[in-house]
Amino acid sequence: QKTLGQLACDECRQALVTEAVPQNFRSAYHLLRLKHNCGLFVPSEGAIRTVLAAERALCHMIKVHTPTVKHIASRLQIQHQVLLEIAHRDIFHLHEHILRTESGIDNHHYQLLRLLSSSYYELRQCYLERLVKQEWHRARVKQILTEFSF
Fold first, then answer.
1. CB count in 10 Å sphere of residue 20
2. CA torsion through residues 100, 90, 64, 141, sign
3. Calpha distance 91→85 (Å, rounded)
4. For labelling alongside 105, which of 60, 111, 132, 141 has CA 20 to 30 A away?
């Protein structure tokens, strides 16, 4: 919902949500729609793919880089990885709209990908900060315990 409020283009807003009935009626999205009387939005397949790509990029960055006091991953790194992975595919089905809104390499398709990955990063920010604090605490305890051993 936060992402929808940041978009000015109606076609792009429609690309983020779907009205289709889920294939799997046991999925969480179907239960949310029933519980809240369709008050919540069901994300489109393209929005789900973008968030999953951002999650994969973040997990990879956490595994590769040990959490440090500086940072694990930045918003731009997540956006870059998402763009590398799925920017060449039209996952939002915006066919002609991409061509109409194109200014160089920057169009609404890329803006949607960056906006969704950026929103995902903001949601995971607390988790990343907690990882950094845990790693700092672990390093501090290790330092204290090794100071006194002979």
1. 9
2. positive
3. 12
4. 60
Please name the residues in contact with 66: beta carbons below 8 A apart, sequence gap of 6 or more: 135
Distance CA 79, CA 140 (A): 32
Mean pLDDT by 10 residues, the chain (150 residues): 75 76 53 49 84 90 67 80 89 81 74 90 87 86 78
Structure tokens belonging to residue 49: 């793919």
Phi/psi of residue 68, each to 5°? Answer: -120, 170
- What distance in Å separates the CA atoms of residue 135 and residue 22, rounded to the nearest whole number? 40
For residue range 76-103, what is the model confidence (pLDDT) as tens digits?
888 999 999 998 888 888 888 877 777 7
Long-range Cβ pairs for the range 49-53 (8 Å, 24+) = 49/86, 49/91, 50/82, 50/86, 50/91, 50/112, 50/113, 50/116, 50/117, 50/120, 51/116, 51/117, 51/120, 53/81, 53/82, 53/85, 53/86, 53/117
Q: 110 exposed, middle or buried (CB, 10 Å; 0-12, 13-18, 19+)?
A: middle
Cβ-contact 73, 62 below 8 angstroms:
yes
